[in-house]
Specification:
The complex is a heterotrimer of chains A (about 375), B (about 160) and C (about 350). Chain B has about 160 residues and is an alpha+beta fold. Chain B has helices at about 1-15, 15-30, 65-70, 80-85, 140-150, 150-160; strands at about 50-55, 75, 90-95, 115, 130-135. Classes of the chains: A mainly alpha (about 375), B alpha+beta (about 160), C mainly alpha (about 350). Chains in contact: A-B, A-C, B-C. The structure holds iron/sulfur cluster (2 copies).
């Protein structure tokens, strides 16, 4: 892999100085891999010269499993793909089936979905922020982030009955309206939360240790990022403006006013700052949705109890917490999907890891894995 | 030059590190957020999807819940035909909480509202068999338990 | 028993003191762990260990018991002999360093609060604490596993690099006090702790002491997110406890030394309580002990505060800071102090 060391104008010192690379097993039980992900590192001292991802430890065959269930019954299982962004997975699947059936989701349900989606995005980014900071040694941020995430979880519990795997949306709309007082609780949270983000930024964004650890580490240029198929904040950190919410609006996203934060250099710091800014944008979206929440039904009127979409296929993607989260459903006219495929952003984004890590140090591998924000449930499915 | 000097001063005096220390010190003085769980019972919202609870008295053995469950963990045994004409209560009703994912899909289609989630969330047992709930264990004692824990008052307070 | 017999004076009394000191230090170290976990919790908006005993005060004992009762695993790849003795190499220097720390003013000619009033105290301290790295390197190498090897290599280079600025900053203290004896240094700070004139040296000392003891933000040898557990990844049970003990003993030692060298030890500036209460030597000693403890705990608090706030440096950045920032600063400081001393002598 590496050229033998060579002093100018001499023959290569192959005999004397040839060194062997050290193979290091990074995972599957390693504190920094965020699950059962395994990377085999080839190390030259502390420098990484090669990285091989080995995945599949969490493979549950979710797609195949869903093909043996009716459309309705398959909904809750997609929460288990990316279990920190469960609502968005649910939205993706439900949206695909709705597209297949050509069901118009009522306006109010669309707005409620936007609110819950964006709250889920904040919750996911908070967990990511905490674990990413913990990987780089700033343990306090984790507890602060979890503390705020707890409030969102409580909001979910009050609204949907569950905290993590909510089984949020039925096909067609939403189940129940907000409980009494939910709106106020949510607004209180939204009012306080920007200050908390400021605190995280004080602890990290300007901190010289953090900046030194993340600036210029794991650089992926815009073209490379597109070529690798990266999406989500990982792509936007490289300065490519692509956000499904803007590019192909769904669920009334075109009615909201928000920005898509972009990075400049495509390093770990940019991916970090993009996510932090995204949280601020999500707050704006939730506020607008709460203000403009239209009245109306929650479920479409004519929707049969048994979901039996016409034969055909549909692809629907949402801006998931990790990137472009797409669901491809093929129906043969029965009540079970004939084929179902998930475009899992974590899985695709993992392709970028080698580009980021090679040439860096072992400590940078940790920073890079953290900045990708992978969830192994989604990588392995 | 002033820029460089400014940078040198900033490098030597650690203003941003100090503000970071100020943030942690601020939370050092504030009240803590830890919940003292086994000592202090959590207040759960009304919609919490806890352990399933079936009112066998009102159930009409229609098996809608059984069909809706994605994990196939409900089994309803309707009474014999002759009995069913007069008394529709199920002969036996099993829910295996070992497999239940607390998704709530069985609650939606029930025509009589007999099956619903309770707020019981401490479901750990020493024995897997204890997680198989039947006609006797599904309904009432849970309610009594809730009364004991004072959770029902929360229901009143938190109901929408 | 004749306390004045030569045997008692040379062997008996020091031995007794050593036994007492070992017990006290081990106790302090255990409660340092408790204090750290508690304070960390407070900084992180939670309460920390609070289940075992009131306010979690029995937690260290429970932890110790657990570690003693655990199985002592020796991995197949390890070199068993070295693997067994390495933790001892780590723990002994950490405790031996306490021998020259003066905790309080002496209460009588034979009732001093230090074991050995060596006139090369500081040199002894620097020498003995740098031995601790052997335990870490040996342990990491003898484990026969890759992560510990990385941890121990990092540790060796880190400790070597930071030994230098640390020594230079201590040298400036020695220049100020004009003695190697710790007690002389403390006496020299009667009016003003060296913290004020030697602020640069103090800064260097704090940073390199944090690095020397492998604590955040310089806890690279055991950076759990990269190297799992660093050099003690393969250790369990009592041998792991030894490493743990050594680490925290080093922390306490560093706090004590910082108190003696920079914060004025048991002296209170502008309040010479020793002379005011001269007739009551035991009371003076007790007050001195309390003052010392308060200062040391304040320093420890700062230590933990830093740990709660900052991310971790990377390996290469750490070495860069050691050699390119701290070393020049400490050298500059040493030159300054020497120049001023010289000018004052003229
Ligand atoms: S909650 Fe879900 S998994 Fe549990 S019994 Fe009901 S439908 Fe089945
Ligand atoms: S759906 Fe309701 S009524 Fe029908 S069997 Fe289930 S619990 Fe009984």
């Amino acid at each position: 892999m590496t050229e033998p060391l060579r002093v100018e104008g001499t023959a290569p010192l192959r005999k004397v100085l040839e060194t062997k690379n050290l193979e290091l097993n990074f995972g599957p039980q390693h504190p920094a891999t965020h699950g059962v992900y395994r990377a085999v590192l080839a190390l030259d001292g502390e420098r990484v010269v090669g990285i091989e991802s080995i995945i599949g430890y969490l493979h549950r065959g979710i797609e195949k499993w869903a093909e043996y269930r009716t459309y309705t019954k398959a909904t809750p299982v997609f929460d288990r793909l990316d279990y920190v962004g469960a609502i968005l997975n649910c939205h993706g699947y439900v949206g695909a089936v709705e597209k297949l059936m050509k069901v118009e989701v009522p306006k109010r349900a669309q707005y409620v979905r936007v609110i819950l989606d964006e709250l889920q995005r904040i919750a996911n980014h908070l967990l990511w922020l905490g674990t990413h900071a913990l990987d780089l040694g700033a343990m306090t941020v984790l507890f602060y982030a979890l503390r705020e995430r707890e409030v969102i979880m409580d909001l979910f519990e009050a609204m949907l009955g569950q905290r993590l795997l909510q089984n949020a949306y039925p096909i067609g709309g939403i189940r129940l309206d907000f409980p009494k007082g939910w709106d106020r609780a949510c607004r209180n949270f939204l009012a306080e939360f920007p200050n908390r983000i400021d605190e995280y930024e004080t602890l990290l964004s300007t901190n010289r240790i953090w900046v030194q650890r993340t600036r210029g580490v794991g650089i992926v240029s815009g073209e490379e990022a597109v070529a690798l198929g990266l999406s989500g904040p990982t792509l936007r950190g490289s300065g490519v403006c692509f956000d499904v919410r803007k590019a192909m609006p769904y669920s009334s996203y075109e009615e909201f006013d928000f920005e898509v934060p972009l990075g400049e250099r495509g390093d770990v710091y940019d991916r970090y700052i993009v996510r932090v800014r995204e949280m601020r944008q999500s707050i704006r979206i939730v506020q607008q949705a709460l203000d403009g929440l239209p009245e109306g039904p929650l479920m479409p009127e004519k929707l049969s109890k048994i979901i039996r979409p016409p034969a055909g296929e549909a692809y629907f993607c949402v801006e998931g917490t990790k990137g472009m989260l797409g669901f491809y459903v093929v129906s043969d006219g029965t009540d079970k999907p004939w084929r179902l495929h998930v475009r899992a952003p974590s899985f695709v984004n993992l392709q970028g890891l080698e580009r980021m890590c090679v040439g860096g140090l072992v400590a940078d591998v940790v920073a890079n894995i953290g900045s990708l924000d992978i969830v192994l449930g989604e990588v392995d499915r | 030059m002033p820029g460089a000097l400014n940078r040198l001063v900033r490098m030597m005096t650690f203003p941003e590190l100090a503000s970071g220390l100020a943030v942690t010190f601020k939370w050092f003085r504030k009240p803590k957020v830890t919940e003292f769980y086994p000592d202090a019972r959590p207040v759960l919202p009304y919609r919490t999807k806890g352990r399933l609870h079936v009112e066998i008295e009102t159930c009409i053995s229609c098996r809608m819940c059984e069909k809706a469950c994605p994990e196939d963990c409900i089994k309803v045994y309707p009474p014999p035909k002759e009995v069913f004409k007069t008394d529709k209560r199920p002969a036996q009703f099993y829910i295996s909480l070992e497999h239940c994912i607390h998704c709530g899909m069985c609650v939606d289609p029930c025509p009589t509202g007999s099956i619903h989630h309770s707020m019981e969330f401490e479901l750990a047992t020493y024995n897997k068999d204890e997680l198989l709930f039947n006609k006797e264990t599904l309904p009432y004692d849970l309610l009594i338990k809730h009364f004991r824990q004072g959770l029902l008052e929360n229901v009143e307070q938190k109901s929408p | 028993m004749n306390w004045n017999s030569p045997f008692m004076l040379t062997v008996g009394l020091p031995l007794l003191k050593i036994v007492i000191l070992l017990g006290v230090v081990a106790f302090c170290v255990a409660y340092t762990v408790w204090l750290e976990r508690r304070l960390l919790g407070f900084f992180q908006s939670r309460v920390g260990p609070n289940r075992v005993g009131p306010a979690g005060l029995i937690q260290p004992i429970a932890d110790g018991l657990k570690l003693i009762l655990k199985e002592d695993i020796i991995p197949t790849n390890a070199r068993p002999f070295l693997f067994r003795i390495a933790p001892i190499f780590a723990v002994v220097p950490a405790f031996a360093g306490f021998a020259i720390v003066a905790f309080a003013p002496p209460a009588g000619p034979r009732a001093s609060f230090l074991i050995s009033d060596a006139n090369i105290g500081i040199l002894y301290l620097l020498a003995i604490t740098s031995l601790g790295v052997f335990g870490i390197v040996l342990g990491g190498w003898a484990s026969g596993s890759k992560y510990p090897l990385f941890g121990s290599l990092r540790s060796a280079s880190q400790m070597l690099s930071y030994e230098v600025p640390l020594t230079f900053s201590v040298l400036s203290v020695i220049l100020m006090a004009g003695s190697f004896r710790l007690d002389d240094i403390i006496q020299a700070q009667g009016k003003l702790p060296f913290l004020v004139p030697l602020i640069l040296a103090f800064g260097v000392y704090v940073i390199s002491a944090v690095a020397e003891t492998n604590r955040a933000p310089f806890d690279l040898p055991e950076a759990e997110s990269e190297l799992v557990g660093g050099f003690h990844t393969e250790y369990s049970g009592m041998r792991f406890a030894f490493y743990f003990l050594a680490e925290y003993a080093n922390v306490v030692l560093v706090c004590c030394v910082a108190t003696s060298l920079f914060l004025g030890g048991y002296k209170i500036p502008f309040l010479p309580y020793e002379t005011l209460l001269a007739g009551n030597p035991w009371l003076v000693s007790l007050i001195g002990l309390a003052v010392f403890a308060v200062k040391a705990v304040a320093f420890l608090y700062f230590y933990i505060w830093i740990r709660a706030t900052f991310p971790r440096y990377r390996y290469d950045q750490l070495l860069k800071i050691g050699w390119k920032v701290l070393l020049p600063i400490s050298l500059l400081n040493l030159l300054l102090v020497a120049g001023i001393k010289l000018a004052m002598l003229r």
